[in-house]
Amino acid sequence: MNGRRIQGSLLTGGTQATLRAICNRTRHPRVGSILIAPNLEAGLYDAIVAASAVVCGEGGQTGHMQSLCRGRGIPVLRVDEADLAALVGEVTLDLENGSILLDPDPAAGPLPARGTATPTAEDLGAACAVIADFQDIRTVNSCGPNAKCVDSFFIREEFLCLAAGLSPLDALDGGPDERARYGQAIAERLVAFVEELLPDQRLILRLLDLRSDHAASVTEQAPVAVEPNPELGLHGARWLLGSTPYRDALHSVLDTLRTRLGDQAARIHLSVPFLNDADEYAQLRAHLELPPTVPLSAFIETPAAVHATPQICAAGASELFVGVKDLVQFYLAADRGNHLVADSYQTRHPAVLDGVRRVVEAARAAGTPVRVFSLGADLTHYLAQLATPDGYMMCTAELVQVLRA
C-alpha cells in the first residue's frame, strides 16, 4: 500500500488489523464510517456508536467515551490534532501499527483478527459485563456455555439517556411531570434489558453520574456550572445528595419497573457512583428513600473509599465494584483523559494494585461480594497480583474475547 502515513496512538483496539472506510467529519451518525473528532464527548454518542472506528486529537485510554468504544469493539486512534485536517474521503487504519494510511490501495483487504486473550472464562469468577445497550447482552449470551460465568451486566444511567435521546438535567429541571416521564423512559429501557437476561443474570444500574463538561453537551435549558476540573467536581454521590428532583425521578423508575416487571424488578440493582465514605453511603440511601428490599451497591473509585471499605460494607453495601480507571488517576494524579500524561497513567502501578488489594481483602473479610474492573490487557497481570475477588468486570468486546478463547 502506498500513500502518506500519519502515526498515532491506539487508545482502544478492535478485532481487525486494518480497517478501511470513509471519514465522517460531521457530528451526525454515518453507519460504518470513521468518525473524525477533535475530542470525544457525550454529544457525539450517536455518531460514535454508528462508526466502525474513531480518530480523535486528544484523550486517554479510559475516558468515558473511549470506554464506550472499548465495550463495543470500536477502535479509537489518537493523532496530532493538526493531522485531523488531512483525514477526508477514504482512509485505512493500520491498527497493528497505530497509524493511518492516506490514499489506500482499494484492493487491500483486512488482515486476520488478532489473537485472543490468554485467560479463560474460569479465571473471571462471577463476571460482570460492562455494557452500553441490550445488544451487548445478546453478544455476551451468544458465547455458548461460557456465558454462564457472566451473572451480571453493568450499565451507566447516562448511557441509557444518550441511547434514548434523553437530556437528564433538562428533565429534572422541568417539574414533576417531566421527572416522571424521565423515570418512565429509563425504566422502559431497563425492561428491554431484563428481557435479554438469562435466568440467573441481573442488571446493575449505576445511578446518574453526569460531570458538568459532559452535561453541557447534552443539556439545552438547565443551568450547568462551569467547573475548572469537572472530574473532581460536583458529580456522583455528592451531586445525588443535593438533588431532590433526581430522587423523585428514581422513584418513578422503581414504580414503573414494579408495574412492568412485578417480582422480576428485583433483578435490577442500583449502585452509588463516586463515593468517598460510609457516611455518604448512608446519607444517600436515606436521601433517596430507598425501600430496604432495593439493593444498593457502591463503587470504590477514590482513595478515600479504599480506606473506608470496611465501614462501607458495614453500612450495608450489597456489593462493591472497584473502578480501577478512576483509582489510577486519583492515586497517580494523572488525568485519564489527558494524553500528555499517558506515561504516568499506569493501570499496573504498585500503589494502585495495593489499593485494589486492600478493597478485595476488606470486602472478603466482611462477606461483601466484590468485583474488580480490568482492561483486557491487564487481566493476566491482575490475576497474578491480586487476592481473588468474587469476579472481574470487563467491557463487552474484551470480555467476549475471553469467553470465546
TrEMBL record:
Residue span, PEP-utilising enzyme C-terminal domain: 197-372
Database matches in PANTHER family: PHOSPHOENOLPYRUVATE-PROTEIN PHOSPHOTRANSFERASE
Signal peptide coordinates: none
Gene3D superfamilies on file: Phosphoenolpyruvate-binding domains, Phosphohistidine domain
Family: Belongs to the PEP-utilizing enzyme family.
Molecular function terms from GO: kinase activity; metal ion binding
Pfam families: PEP-utilizers, PEP-utilizers_C
Database matches in InterPro entries: PEP-util_enz_mobile_dom (IPR008279), PEP-utilizing_PTS_enzyme (IPR050499), PEP_util_C (IPR000121), Phosphohistidine_dom_sf (IPR036637), Pyrv/PenolPyrv_kinase-like_dom (IPR015813), Pyrv_kinase-like_dom_sf (IPR040442)
Cofactors named for this entry: Mg(2+)
Protein name: Phosphoenolpyruvate-protein kinase (PTS system EI component)
Domain PEP-utilising enzyme mobile: 32-98
